[in-house]
Structures are given as structure tokens and as C-alpha cells.
Amino acid sequence: MPEKIRVGIAGYGNLGRGVEAAIGQNPDMMLAGVFTRRDPSQLQLLDSAVPVHPLDGIANFRDEIDVLILCGGSREDLPQQGPALAAMFNTVDSFDTHAKIPAYFDAVDQAAEPSGHTAIISVGWDPGLFSLNRLLGEAVLPEGQTYTFWGKGLSQGHSDAVRRVPGVAAAVQYTIPVPQAIERVRSGSLPSLSTREKHTRECHVVLAEGADAQSVREAIISMPDYFADYDTTVNFITAEELRERHAAMPHGGFVIRSGQTGASNTQVVEYALKLDSNPEFTSSVLVCYARAAWRLNRQGITGAKTVYDVAPGLLSRKTPQELRKELL
Amino acid sequence: MPEKIRVGIAGYGNLGRGVEAAIGQNPDMMLAGVFTRRDPSQLQLLDSAVPVHPLDGIANFRDEIDVLILCGGSREDLPQQGPALAAMFNTVDSFDTHAKIPAYFDAVDQAAEPSGHTAIISVGWDPGLFSLNRLLGEAVLPEGQTYTFWGKGLSQGHSDAVRRVPGVAAAVQYTIPVPQAIERVRSGSLPSLSTREKHTRECHVVLAEGADAQSVREAIISMPDYFADYDTTVNFITAEELRERHAAMPHGGFVIRSGQTGASNTQVVEYALKLDSNPEFTSSVLVCYARAAWRLNRQGITGAKTVYDVAPGLLSRKTPQELRKELL
Q1: pLDDT surpasses 90 at A156
Q2: Which pLDDT score is estimated for B147?
Q3: Any CB–CB contact under 8 A between A108 and chain B?
Q4: Name one Pfam family in it (chains A, B) (predicted).
Q5: Is B247 touching A (CB cutoff 8 A)?
């Protein structure tokens, strides 16, 4: 039995907890420690035997962690933590601010490469597995069109946006793909679809005391970038309903590539996710890419990487021989 | 503009013709030549400017071909051609006899490695893209089950088996996934499904003169391995009907991975293909893996490879920077 890969977790929210659970499903890995900015004694881990340390002392653990999974957020945490921690550890993260990926890649690369570390950025399902399918679709079918649909699922960014509206005490927002749009894409007809035609948005809002429902609704549905381009439904509910019926974090979506080959044959490729728990699935993807980061590093392949740089076999616990015999 | 990748085609049937068409969709490649065992003057290429040569003189073209795409069959051609041609060229093939893949891999590796060539075997959709999704599914969701469904589509192997039945003049066989089985798998309920529950088989048979329909039907539906374990329908049709209504080669299928994360959250991943032309799609996959074979070879990575060894970025014409900016 080879030694287990020693994984560390930096940041213990929904994603960090999901990573802890996912490591438990992978017998070639062990959770060597959790690092937090909170008071370590306040963290309730799934496995109380795992040591918890303050994040600011993490430099002392360089020899005890083979791969560190960064579970902070893309807005506040990763822009600083990603480069800083890739200078000390092999890392995997789920940086998902699409527009800033090139700059983030460069910053992480400049920290990882000179220090001899391997850092796989933007891992999860989008970016991540969806990115993989966008690439595969257009590589296999160069003459065609790629469509990404999200949902039905709880969008953290849009929920946050609703919560910032004056008069909103609490809220969740679901992104819902339009079934007719998906069917048109699946038919291979290569439709042009506006933003409004692809997704609808559904908000469940708890009003603050004394707030006016009509003006809250107006403020939400007219919000630029987030809602103005969509058909948005706003439902007002009680705090109890929100707690009882909207605590889960389901998500999912579709990447569909439709293209033509030969004279005029239509080919349709679809990748679909239906997730009961968005953070747990993202965590599961992070964990298998952590295995790949460790293996790449042992091969001397360092610097920042993305899912595009990782040969799929590196993700599996199985040997290349087993993969060819059992799965190919 | 960098020089184009010079691709050769060995064998010009449906697959070879599909490769010719696919190369036309990839401006970084050019078709440098077609090699055939038939009389070269008899071949009708899509582009009559492409030179056609006898296959037995292919050794003279080592300096003119960057990657050779092997378009022969898995039963008769590739077991011999795969190793022989990988000793002279970088190659890509669609060897699809699942049980014999490990032995074939070894034979090709022993030819490719010492001669400094890169040979990607078993490329297409199954094996190929489906294999990739079987691996990804179990790597991301270790606690779960993977289901592969094929069809609705024309199966070459099963059509051949029907044609070998005495009294059959011509025939096609469609493999049809059972919709209820797919729905049960999509629900995340991890059903146990027998062979009979997953697929049905539909044969369209033209009887030979004087053949007895009832005994032909019996011989087909009771055929071990091919039909005995399935619910099989046999329809008798005329030669005209066969030509007019069953000449296309549609296919497709589904790889579905369903698993649990955390306490008990169900996650379902589905990859689905709906193909108007099975050989043209397989050809399109071969062509983008030809690009990868050439790039791997230029990096000094030689020997036999499978889709598991190929980082996805190598499949795309785009640069790593473009991929991160546009697709990640």
C-alpha cells in the first residue's frame, strides 16, 4: 500500500466541509489538517480527530501537506490566497470569476513556478467540467455552436445581489433554464438565443420589517447585469419558509455542442449535471484534481495549470493498466 | 501562420471518408495522402486533388506524413496494421474490441516506443469520449454507479451477425436503449439492470429467395451473445425498403454516473450523444486526437497512448491562453 496523499484544507465553509467528506471517499488520501482564519476551537469538523490550525501559521506545515485545497471565495479570498499559498504548497482551487481567470492564472503561475509547486486553478464544474466539455465539443465539431445552460439551481451571486436590496431581510435566487430553449438546442437547429430566452430567475424574498413589497420587487427586477435582462419572478415568503424549504443548495446545468459533419449530418453532444449539493460536487471535483496536482508535481510539472492541462488518467486512483482494461 | 499538420489516411471506407471531411474543417491540418489496398485509381475522394497511393508502399512516405489515421477495421486490419504502422508513423486509430485493448496497446507500444513514435489507440466515441466520461464519473463520484447505454443506432457488429444467418440476403440491426431504464438511472436510484432491461434490438431483414421467415427469425433471436439475452424484434422488408430507409448510420448513447456525496446527496452526471452519422463523428474525434498525437510527439512523449493520457488542451487548435480566456 503506497503512502496516502496528505491533503490540507484552507477555509472551512460549505466547500471545505464538502472536501472533508470527499476525502473520506478516496482511500488513497488523508486529511492532514484544516486551516482557518476563525478560532480553530470553534470549528465543528465531520471528523473531530483532524487537527485544525490558524491559517496564518500555515507556512510551518510545508512538509506535512502534499496538496492544499483552497476553499475560500473568488471575490475576497483567492486573489490574495491563491498566489500566496502556491508559493508554499501544491494547490487546487475553484476560482470562478471567469473574466479574471487569465490574470489570476498569471499571478498563481508566478508564485508556483519558481517555488517548484503545481497549482491547478478554476477547478469545479463551471469552470471545470463544463469548461472541459466546451473544449471537447468545439475540438470534435469545429463547425457548430456551444450552449451552456445553468440550473435549476441556487445561485450564490444572485442571492447575494438580492440581499443587498434595501428592504430585503433574507433571500435566495434560483436560476432556471428555459426548457423550450434546451429542446431547440438539442434538436440541432443551432438557434440564436437571447439572454432572456435561455434562463429565467426566481427570487424568494423575506421582507424586512416595514418594507414595501412593490418597491422591493421593482428594485430587484430592474437591477442591471443581474436581473434586468431576464424574466424574473419575485415571491415573498416568511423566514420560516425560507429556512425550511430553501436551505438546500441544488444546482446543475447543461453544455450542449451541436455541429455538422460531412455534407450535412447533425451531431449533438450533451453534458448534463443534476446536483443535490452544488458545494459537495465542486468539492468532489477539487479532490480528484488534488490527486492530479500531486502526481504532476512528482513528475516535475510545475506552475499554474487548468483542467485543460491535466491528462484524465491522472484523476483516477486506478493505474493506467487498470483504466485501459476496465474503463476504456 | 505555422505549417499545417500533414495527415495521412490508411484505409478509405466510411471512416476514411469521414476523416477526409473532418480534416477540411480544421484549417491547421492538410490531407497529405490516402493509402489503400485497393487500386488507387478506383477511389473516389471528396477532393480529387489529394494523392492516393498503394498501402504497401507507405514506408516511402515517412517524411511526408506527420500523423497517420488508421481507418481499417478492428477485427481484420488493425491487429496487424496498428503495430506495423506505429513503427513508421505517429498514428491514431479507433480499435474498439474492448476485451483485446490491453494486448493491442502492448503490441502498438512495442512498435511505437523504440521507433520514437506516438500512437493513440482506441479513439472515437466508445471507446473514446465515453471512456473519458466513465473515468471522470467515477473519479469525481467514487461512491456510485456508472451506466452506459447505446443507441438508438445502427450496430455494425450485430448487423453482420444477422447477415451471417442462413436465409438472410441483407439486414440492419438497431440497438435501442430502454427509455424507462434511462429514466431510472437519471433519477439517481442506482438500479440494478439486467442486459434485457437496458436495451432492445430491432432487426430489418431481407430474406433470401425461398428462405423461411419463421426459421430465420428463430435463428436470430436465439443467437447466443448477440441476441439471446435481449428482447429482439425481427421485421422482414424488401431490398428497396432497406436501401431507401436504412442506409443512414445514426448512433449515439449515454454514459450516466450517479453517486452520493456527503451524508446523502445524490449527484447525477450525464453525457449523451445523438449522431446522424456514426462514422463521421468517430472520424471527427480521430482528427482532433491526431493533432494531439503530433503535439505529444513534438514534446518527446512517445509510445502507445489512450484518451486517458491526453491533456484536453492538446486537442484544440487554440493556444492555452485563448482556451483560458474564451472557454474556461
Answers
A1: no
A2: 98
A3: no
A4: DAPDH_C
A5: no
A203 forms beta bridges with: A173, A234
**pLDDT value at position B1?**
54
Q: Which portions of chain B are predicted below pLDDT 50?
A: none
Q: Do B308 and A312 touch (CB under 8 A)?
A: yes
Q: What SS3 state is found at A99?
A: helix
DSSP string, A273-326: EEES-HHHHHHHHHHHHHHHHHHHHHTT--EEE-GGGS-GGGGSSS-HHHHHHH
Cβ neighbours of A313 in B, within 8 Å: 135, 306, 308-309
* B285 shares contact with chain A (CB less than 8 Å): yes
For residue A151 the three cell numbers come to 440550473
> DSSP of B1-67, one letter per residue?
-PPPEEEEEE--SHHHHHHHHHHTT-TTEEEEEEEESS-GGG---SSTTS-EEEGGGGGGGTTT-SE
Question: How far apart, in whole angstroms, are the C-alpha atoms of residue A45 and residue B275?
Answer: 47
Query: Which helix (DSSP H) or strand (DSSP E) does residue B251 occupy?
Result: strand B251-261
Q: Do B262 and A122 touch (CB under 8 A)?
A: no
In whole angstroms, give the CA distance from residue B303 to residue A95: 35
Residue B151 CA to residue B275 CA, distance in Å, equals: 9
pLDDT in tens, B127-160: 999 999 999 999 999 999 999 999 999 998 899 9
Residue A1: its pLDDT value, please? 54
Closest Cα in chain B to A316: B139
Provide the number of CB pairs (under 8 Å) joining chain A to chain B: 212
Question: Quick check: A256 pLDDT over 90?
Answer: yes
pLDDT tens, residue by residue, A276-306? 999 999 999 999 999 999 999 999 999 999 9
| Contacting residues for A35 by C-beta, under 8 A, at least 6 apart | A8, A9, A10, A11, A52, A53, A54, A55, A58, A61, A68
Sheet holding B52-54, edge to edge: B52-54, B29-36, B5-10, B67-70, B91-93, B118-120, B303-305
A263 band by pLDDT with thresholds 50, 70 and 90: confident
Long-range Cβ contact pairs of B319-325 (< 8 A, separation 24 or more): B320/A308, B320/A309, B321/A102, B323/A135, B323/A306, B323/A308, B324/A101, B324/A102, B324/A105, B324/A306, B324/A308, B325/A101, B325/A102
Residue A195 annotated as part of some ligand binding site: no
The C-alpha atoms of residue B178 and residue B116 are separated, in whole angstroms, by 46
Q: Is A268's CB within 8 Å of B262's CB?
A: no
Q: Count of CB atoms within 10 A of residue A223's CB?
A: 17
Considering the entire predicted model, what is its pTM?
0.96
- Domains, chain A, ranges and CATH? 3-124+277-325 (3.40.50.720), 132-276 (3.30.360.10)
Looking at the DSSP bridge assignments, the partners of residue B153 are B175
Could you tell me if A134 lies within 8 Å of chain B, comparing CB atoms? yes
CA distances from B221 to B210, B211, B217, B260, B317 (A): 20, 16, 6, 39, 47
Task: Note whether B25 contacts A101, CB cutoff 8 Å.
Answer: no
Give yes or no for a contact between B53 and B46, defined as CB atoms under 8 angstroms apart.
no
Give the residue among B284, B146, B49 at the shortest CA–CA distance from A261: B284
